Amino acid sequence: MSDLGLIQIEVGAGVSIVLPLARERTLLSAAALWPASLSPAASYTCHPFCIDSHQALLCDALGMGVELALICLFPRFTYEDYQKTAEWLLSRTTHRPQVAVICGSGLGGLAEKVTQAQSFDYSDIPNFPLSTVPGHAGRLVFGLLNGKACVVMQGRFHLYEGYSVWKVTFPVRVFRLLGVDTLVVTNAAGGLNPKFEVGDIMVLRDHINLPGFSGQNPLRGPNEDRFGVRFPAMSDAYDRQLRKMAHITWKQMGEQRELQEGTYVMLVGPNFETVAESRLLRQLGADAVGMSTVPEVIVARHCGLRVFGFSLITNMVVMSYDRLEKANHEEVLEAGKQAAKKLEQFVSTLMSCIPPPCNAS
């Protein structure tokens, strides 16, 4: 039996029971723990399953015909789970990536620029969730991008798909175990800053983790010291040197529009923002809004990864009740298609600015 911890269950009338949480199906004796007034039986059967972001047990009290869902606030994945996935990938590819790239909605075309490519469908990778959103192909592509060893996520995961924050960020810790030291995150976002235009690229200088205000944080729960410290700093989440090099790269590309830089705010979605919400987000100091990225960045920084991120502004957020426009996912995908060539050149060129691994000879 692989115990993950203890769970205390309130069963009413001020009575609680304490049980070990196990991965395997387990028959537990509850004679000493189960309130006598509730059960004529001495045992019950537990079946592990998952509710949203929580590991749980479904308990059937024998002789009662009553099922109780016992929820435990432990992360779904253990260090060994991440290790198993990393080892599975390493055993099937000769590539040893230094950089991981997460492609946002409509931006997966970047993976087509990878040379010596070897890809794996998410459905074949142990523990990997599946992409369910249009514009996310659901493939992990290993190879070279402008000569840099990389792994590209052609499609990411979102909280609004029903995945827990631990599942959404699962690939990031796997990347760390693959040897990755730099994470590049991309996303499609709505523009809050009135100076922005559709098609602009905004380098992420900072973020606002709005779901975190209500407890949706990927680091919640027992800390895994093998990945990072209990209380990681986030004031330097986005690498200053890479941001500087991004502006230099942009000028070298000869683009007419200025490369923007600003603060990204994350909402869970899947609905787009109301006018009142948009106004509030702007007052908070946000320049762009989206439904992803922040959880991955938090986990990446916890793992000690260097992070660079940018948003493609696919629409201007509705800030006035007099405007008739409405945001929709189709325009997000179309904006990504229109900007694809520019983005591919930008990211590909930026690869040469990423310093070699510390252990490189």
UniProtKB/TrEMBL annotation:
Catalysis performed (reactions): 2'-deoxyguanosine + phosphate = 2-deoxy-alpha-D-ribose 1-phosphate + guanine; guanosine + phosphate = alpha-D-ribose 1-phosphate + guanine; inosine + phosphate = alpha-D-ribose 1-phosphate + hypoxanthine; 2'-deoxyinosine + phosphate = 2-deoxy-alpha-D-ribose 1-phosphate + hypoxanthine
Nucleoside phosphorylase domain span: 99-350
EC numbers on record: 2.4.2.1
Class of enzymatic activity (EC top level): transferase
Top-level lineage group: Eukaryota
Pfam families attached to this UniProt entry: PNP_UDP_1
Matches recorded under InterPro entries: Nucleoside_phosphorylase_d, Nucleoside_phosphorylase_sf, Pur_Nuc_Pase_Ino/Guo-sp, Purine_phosphorylase, Purine_phosphorylase-2_CS
UniProt KW keywords: Glycosyltransferase, Purine salvage, Transferase
Pathway: Purine metabolism; purine nucleoside salvage
GO molecular function, one term: purine-nucleoside phosphorylase activity
Keyword field contains Transport: no
PROSITE patterns: PNP_MTAP_2
Any one Gene Ontology cellular component term annotated for this protein: cytoplasm
One GO process term, biological-process aspect: purine ribonucleoside salvage
Function: Catalyzes the phosphorolytic breakdown of the N-glycosidic bond in the beta-(deoxy)ribonucleoside molecules, with the formation of the corresponding free purine bases and pentose-1-phosphate. Preferentially acts on 6-oxopurine nucleosides including inosine and guanosine.
Protein family (similarity comment): Belongs to the PNP/MTAP phosphorylase family.
Quaternary organization: Homotrimer.
Protein name as annotated: Purine nucleoside phosphorylase
The organism of origin for this protein: Trichechus manatus latirostris (Florida manatee)
Gene: PNP
